[in-house]
Request: fold
Amino acid sequence: VFVDAVHYAPHRLVDVRTLGCDFLACSSYKFYGPHLGILYGRKDRLQSLEVAKLAPAPDSVPERLETGTQNHEGIAAAKATVEWLASLAEGGTRRERLARAFEAFHERESALFGRLWDGLGAIRGVTRFGPPPTRPRTGTLSVTIRGVTPEAAATQLGEEGLFVSHGDFYATTVVERLGFSRDGLLRIGLSCYSTQDEVDRLL
Reply:
């Protein structure tokens, strides 16, 4: 089982043991760190993979998957990011502090997301996509605005100091099936530092 946790990792604390997955991938830039890809793999699965490598490269795990000089500055920055996230809660092990910090993020984000969801739903011409806040989800939402392209909306909001994005976000098939392959969607995402004032200003 391969889990793509790139969008999940900044919103909920990843636990590969609970998931029971063979592989999990994410990127630390999604949780406020450097642009660095992260791959977890069970040792037996990593050992069994056929990988192209130079003859002098080791056969041991995980080195057999890492070619050449590693991105040491990125690795150090990713570690610092995890330490920073853990520092946002007090007491216990790093893992316990991370769990408390992520739970606090989730509670805060859920409250803000409910306000965002309801507020956008009350605006005529706005169509929301995805499950409502009563269902398990993260605080990221895609919308369309009748008569306004996503690019124009993103540009206008940017001029108001609100950063949103537009396009298909690598979900080309979904956006195409929704009928928006030409202009894409407008995406609004909440993070651990989003505020109620920002949500209200966006609405």
User: Anything to note?
Assistant: The CA atoms of residues 35 and 125 lie 37 Å apart. The first strand starts at residue 2 and ends at 4. The radius of gyration is 20 Å. Residues 94-121 form the longest helix (28 residues).
